[in-house]
Amino acid sequence: MNLNSNLICRLFFGLFAIALSLSASAWELAGSKTIALHTRDGQRIVIGSVDFTPKNGQATFTLHLDHAKLKDFFLSMKEFKCLEGEEIHCHVPYPYPNPGTISRSDLRWLEHSLLFLYKQPKDFGAKLWNGLYYQMTLTDKGIVGTPQAVDLVQIGAPPANTSIPPYGPADRNDISPNSRWINRLTIE
Length: 188
Prior knowledge:
12 strands; single chain; mainly beta; 12-stranded antiparallel sheet; 2 helices
């Protein structure tokens, strides 16, 4: 083997090893991951975890919210688990059966499981039209959710087809960055 062939082989194997390490470091939908909310002033507040179990190219998930971090609020005749700060940020559990599955390209059921509403501390009751839907993106470090406005009144009645997540792109609106106290959700 001449010097050029030897150099080409080492270069090929070096690039192959780098490619393997990059693919091995891709964030996987497996195991227990931390759910955190991020405030516009830079605070990271861990509110629980989610367990992912790989299954046939997808993953099932189970949420575990840390109720010690969330305060009970009785709003509009219903109890909510909320985070208190500049705004009251309340988790709104998706109320209907769903498959509880996601894939790397479809995170909609996880997005629907992490719906929130916000209200000002001085406001009375829950305003379901002040809903927040975190549109999620899978990154190499985890999942990042960007808040969008959504009217939670829409899930007051069951959808016609419970196997399809009801909030599609036409049901959500972008909001101005940093207009809400909680400006990001992460799962890492």
